[in-house]
Amino acid sequence: MKERLSIIVVEQDADRALRIVDGLRETGTHDILVISESAALARRIAERKPDIVLIDAGDPSRDVLEELALAAGPMERPVAMFVDRSDAALTRAAIAAGMSAYVVDGLRADRIKPILDAAMARFHMFQQMRAELTATKAALEERKVIERAKAILMRARGIDEEAAYVLLRKTAMDQGRRLADIAQQLVMAAGLLT
């Protein structure tokens, strides 16, 4: 965990908020903002761009949980939610909403630092997995375009697959461009001609 974090605590009850802030202060010197009302929560969080958001939801309904999760921006930053009780449906909803940590009966000062560490580590792990998935999908789409371009060249020139690939690669190298870009242009041009 970084030495100094920007933390937003979402808590309506002033006494509970104070306990959370005290627990956070024991873990280090942090920039902490407590938000007690949910009006414009998403905007306030986005403006602040915190390192992590802690939500003490007490006994949330599924709708409240999803609303708080979306406002906190779990795809943009780690979000840890503390609840007094839970059931399987709420746990699934929290996971589906992208919570980095969903802690039942966990609002104790001695547990705050490990929960912060775990939430941040989990968030960064999922962020890396999302980036890898996006890159893999992009590579697969490029591969499909290259295969279509090779098929177009094979039909138009009466050449085999290897010769079509060599022609695409040579064209890309001659023009100093990516093979996928050349293939995309060929597929688009062929689409215009048919």
Write up this protein.
The protein has 194 residues and is an alpha/beta fold. The protein folds into two domains: 6-107, Rossmann fold (3-Layer(aba) Sandwich); 136-193, Arc Repressor Mutant, subunit A, CATH 1.10.10.10. 62% of the residues lie in helices and 13% in strands. The protein has seven helices and five strands, in the order βαβαβαβαβααα. It has helices spanning 14-27, 41-48, 62-72, 88-96, 109-157, 161-175, 179-193, and strands at 6-10, 31-35, 52-58, 79-83, 101-104. It has a five-stranded parallel sheet with strand order 2-1-3-4-5, sandwiched between helices. Helix 3 runs parallel beside helix 4 and helix 5 (109-157) crosses helix 6. The longest helix is centred in the last third of the chain and has 49 residues, at 109-157. It is elongated. The protein starts with 5 loop residues before the first strand and ends with a helix. 31% of the residues are buried.
